[in-house]
Design brief:
323 residues, three-stranded mixed β-sheet, globular, binds NADP nicotinamide-adenine-dinucleotide phosphate
Amino acid sequence: MSKPATLFNRLALIGVGLIGSSIARAARAQGVVGSIVATARSPETRRRVAELGLADQVVETSAVAVEGADLVIVCIPVGACGAVAQEIGPRLAPGALVSDVGSVKGTVVRDMGPHLPKNGHFVPAHPVAGTEFSGPDAGFAELFVNRWCILTPPKNTDQAAVDRLAEFWRLLGANVETMAPDHHDMVLAITSHLPHLIAYTIVGTADELETVTRSEVLKFSAGGFRDFTRIAASDPTMWRDVFLTNKDAVLEMLGRFNEDVAALTMAIRRGDGEALFAHFARTRAIRKGILDIGQDSAAPDFGRPHPDLPHEPLPKPYAADGD
Ligand code: NAP
């Protein structure tokens, strides 16, 4: 199969952690951009990005990185996106497409939008793919294969720009869907943010137990706890920002969750086996639905073939997870 034509001449990546470095690797592997310029906040990360050869050029500031770029993707914690937009706004090339990868979209639209020039395009995006690892070494080219990337263009965004970014993500292996920013935040609150909060909570609860030792918790963790510990190892800065910026949607889901926990608590207290069985049977069917649409399997995602990708995915020692 032939390689796709270059879609953008110059990609500027602002932030090169798990997501930024995976974009760099995938965009290179698929030949979808002419060149990549990257920047990161700390000199250590910039040095590592250069050592790994993830970009054609590594520069010190975001303002310098965006000069002459026709695609700019901001890959940093959600809470820092507004300040970066303010810095790059005046330095963007006319017609440049600016995007991001943040896990919360309403805040990104509100914080970045006002700083970006009218002669360009702003198409926020969220690749629903990730692992619990961080930094430029953690990324891999196959991270987005068969995963969803959700685009949340503000009203009146040029459709051609949305289509172009959608094509970029498809070439990286993702399936693309478009939705309103606030709807995205409600959907992700239940599918990603609440599960992370539960994992952070349960691992903390186990850590504070007095009657069960920490070594027992580790030793017998295969009984379900182990999966929570993996999720609870996710980056604290990223997840702090997710809960601060998606407060309303998370509180709404948390309220519903607490009501359901209360109902199950009551069923256990009353010995109501019928209620427990009915609940567990319903949730088992949901799991089957996820398997049926290919959003999980015993095999890690990066091992799955993608019909349109010319390159063989490399095996990786990570469990991919939709964040
Ligand atoms: P990461 O591996 O921790 O990398 C974060 C990058 O952002 C690093 O280059 C870091 O620079 C930079 N950074 C951190 N704080 C900053 C600040 N205040 N100002 C400027 N740059 C800053 O994070 P990641 O997992 O790639 O996540 C990046 C974004 O992707 C987040 O918005 C997250 O919500 C979203 N996302 C994450 C996942 C996931 O599973 N991890 C999935 C989908 C979307 P230094 O290294 O120099 O500190």
